[in-house]
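Design a sequence for this backbone.
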């Protein structure tokens, strides 16, 4: 009996090892997305600045008022607990008015961005256009990825990809191990998977949120960078210049010669995520240095419904209202919310998404 039990255990270990080596095994083993996911993928490192920018702390903390949640009146701190939040910051005029960490998380805790990275990828596309590496958002994808022309991407403009109106066939079902999003998240050959994308609708007609669009942008960026990695480009153009306080990383698909998961997986701290919001709050200008073209920031955060665009989404940024506010958003309720009228940046990180958050940000912006 002991020998049978031993062989059974060995078999289980072998199966687990086999499963963990492929995307389906990873899906079964790790499913669903989790705040510890930054530990399971290889990464490229981003180093903290030697001269970090540090937000002031307000002399007096300004606590948000309570809110209604699930038919209960809650203090804001209890609302954070109920919604499985791990970090929340409110920053106005470069001063931290409110900062909370929960569930054993603290200021130095790493949290994966998930789809907030899409907004960062958009920043880099704007920089690449400014640098002359990409001609225009009106260029077809096939200009930079000629192998995709035969799949119809000669008719897909970079603008379509930015707006999620490309018409690509992409299953964004996070619970489906055979869908494209599982291949992109858990797979080890993103270049091949991206090049295999097909169209199922005419470009420029309808908004359909699909992470494959942002990975297409990543593949374009990699091609035009001529040997420099996307992480190195981010470090050069944005990360170091805005004075990040902590080391960070970007997850890649495989250890050797991998490519960044540009649709997700930038791993950083709450205060450093807030600096990305501050950069766009000031239209791409950081302490007098124009890092991202101002016209790109404006184009990325305006309401637009032309060519099938959704008026609440522009160039990989969400637009909660039509009043000029905008946000980066991740699947588990990761947010960088920016309200230029109030000179306000808010960051929420957590274990679980909640439909209340955009409403809460708008409410808090009025309150502050």
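Sequence:
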């Amino acid at each position: 009996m002991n020998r049978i039990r031993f062989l059974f255990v060995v078999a289980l270990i072998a199966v687990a090892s086999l499963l963990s080596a492929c995307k389906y095994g990873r899906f079964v083993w790790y499913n669903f997305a989790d705040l510890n996911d930054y530990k399971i993928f290889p990464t490229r490192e981003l180093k903290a600045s030697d001269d970090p920018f540090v937000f002031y702390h307000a002399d007096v903390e300004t606590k948000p008022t309570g809110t209604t949640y699930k038919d209960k009146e809650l203090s804001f701190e209890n609302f954070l607990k109920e919604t499985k939040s791990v970090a929340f910051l409110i920053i106005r005029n470069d001063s931290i008015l409110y900062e909370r960490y929960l569930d054993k998380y603290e200021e130095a805790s790493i949290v994966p961005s998930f789809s907030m990275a899409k907004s960062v990828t958009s920043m880099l596309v704007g920089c690449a256009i400014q640098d002359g590496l990409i001609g225009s958002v009106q260029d077809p994808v096939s200009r930079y990825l000629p192998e995709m022309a035969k799949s119809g991407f000669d008719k897909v403009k970079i603008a379509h990809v930015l707006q999620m109106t490309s018409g690509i066939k992409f299953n964004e079902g996070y619970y489906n191990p055979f869908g494209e999003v599982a291949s992109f998240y858990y797979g080890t050959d993103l270049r091949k998977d991206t090049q295999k994308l097909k169209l199922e609708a005419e470009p420029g007609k309808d908004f359909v949120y699909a992470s494959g669009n942002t990975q297409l942008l990543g593949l374009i960026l990699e091609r035009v960078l001529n040997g420099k990695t996307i992480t190195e480009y981010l470090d050069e153009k944005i990360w170091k210049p805005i004075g990040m306080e902590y080391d960070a990383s970007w997850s890649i698909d495989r250890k050797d010669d991998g490519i960044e998961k540009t649709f997700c997986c930038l791993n950083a701290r709450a205060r450093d995520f807030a600096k990305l919001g501050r950069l766009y709050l000031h239209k791409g200008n950081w302490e007098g240095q124009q890092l991202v073209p101002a016209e790109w920031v404006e184009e990325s955060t305006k309401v637009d419904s032309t060519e099938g665009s959704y008026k609440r989404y522009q160039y990989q940024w969400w637009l909660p209202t039509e009043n000029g506010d905008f946000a980066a958003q991740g699947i588990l309720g990761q947010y960088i919310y920016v309200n230029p009228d109030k000179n306000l940046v808010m960051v929420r990180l957590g274990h679980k998404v909640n439909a209340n958050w955009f409403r809460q940000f708008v409410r808090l912006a009025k309150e502050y």
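The first strand starts at residue 43 and ends at 46.
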